[in-house]
C-alpha cells in the first residue's frame, strides 16, 4: 500500500514530516523580502539535503544553492541545479579530483578559499584539467570560525591571484556572532545591518586593491528577510528558513506557527504519572547544539509537554505541565531543536498537506559528509 494519499497517522515512526503549506510560505516570504532588498538568495541546502526542496527554492527565484560538502554538491548537480557554491574548506587530492569532475557537469561552480595551501591544491588540479575555477575569498568577520583575518585579506588575495587556474569573483563570510546572540525581530534587523556593514567594508578594501567583488556573500536564517536595499551585500545564504525549528523560535526569527518540520513519533510507554516515552531518541531527534533552547523536542499538540532527555531509542517526555496525559500508541508531532541535524538522521521526508501525505522525498544528500 502506497503511503501517498494516506493520513499522516499511517506513517511508521519515527519519521520527519514537513507541512507543505507552511514551508511554501516560508520560502516565498524570505525570497520576496530578499529580492525586494536587491539581493540574490543562494540558500544553504545542508538544512534539508533534498533535491525537491532545492528545486522549489530555485523556482522561487534563488540564484543557485550553497553546499557544505562536495557530496552535497554532487547530489544537487545530479538534480539539475546549475549554479553551485561550496562554502567550506576543501583540502586533499581526493577532493580535488572530485571537484574537477563536478566542474565538468556543473555550468557554474564556485568554492570558498581561506588558506594558501587549499587554494594551491585547487589551482593545480584545475590547471592540470585545463579549466578555471571561480573562488570566493573567505574572511572571518568576527565569528572565530574559518576564514582569513580581515587585515590579511588583501595579502591573501594577492597570493591567490597569482594561481593560474583560479579566478577571484568575490568574498564570503559567516558572521553568526551577529545573528545568534540577538533575540527578537528588532534586534535581528539591527544584526543584519551590522553584519552587512562589516562584510561590505572588507569587500570594499579588496575591491580598492583591484579585486572585483562581483559577489559579496553573507547571511543566516535569523537575519534572512531582514536586510535592506543598499546594505552592502549582494547575496545571502540562509538555510533553516525553509523549516525553522525550536532554536529559531527561541531566537525570535520565527513563530512556532512558521515551523514546517517535525518528527512524527509514537508514545511507547507511560511508566510514571510525570513521564512518557516516545520512540525518537538520539537516532531520531537532533541533539541540542548550544544553549539556545532548553530541551530536545516540543509537542505542539500537547502544550506543556517537553522532551527533556534522549538516549539511543528513547525520548523522555516531561508531562507534569502537559495540557493532557499521553496515551500509549498515539502519534504526535515533535518540533526538533535543530532542523538540519535532525533531517540528516533520516533517509526520507514525508511531504504533507492538511494532514494527508502528498509525497515522499528521498533525502538524497543525507550522510554526504565528504
Helix/strand order, N-terminal first: EHEHEHEHEHEHEHHEEHEEEEEEHEE
Rounded mean pLDDT score = 94
Give me the side-by-side strand order of the main sheet. 2-9-8-7-6-5-4-3
* Gyration radius, in Å: 22 Å
Largest beta-sheet details: 8 strands, parallel
Secondary-structure class: alpha/beta
**How far is the N terminus from the C terminus?**
36 Å
From the spread of the alpha carbons, the general shape counts as: globular
Strand content: 15-25%
Number of domains: 2
**What's the architecture of the largest domain, going by CATH?**
Alpha-Beta Barrel
CATH topology of the largest domain: TIM Barrel
Helix content: 25-40%
CATH homology-level superfamily of the largest domain: Alanine racemase
Which residue ranges are poorly predicted, with pLDDT under 50 across at least 5 consecutive positions? none
CATH structural class of the largest domain: Alpha Beta
SS summary, helix count: 10
Number of strands: 17
For this entry, give a set of tags:
alpha/beta, Lyase, Ornithine Decarboxylase, Chain A, domain 1, six-stranded antiparallel beta barrel, 2 domains, eight-stranded parallel beta sheet, TIM Barrel
Could you characterize the architecture of this molecule?
With 370 residues, the protein is an alpha/beta fold. The protein has two domains: 20-240, Alpha-Beta Barrel (TIM Barrel); 256-362, Beta Barrel (Lyase, Ornithine Decarboxylase, Chain A, domain 1). Helix content is 29%, strand content 23%. Helix 3 (70-78) packs parallel to helix 4.
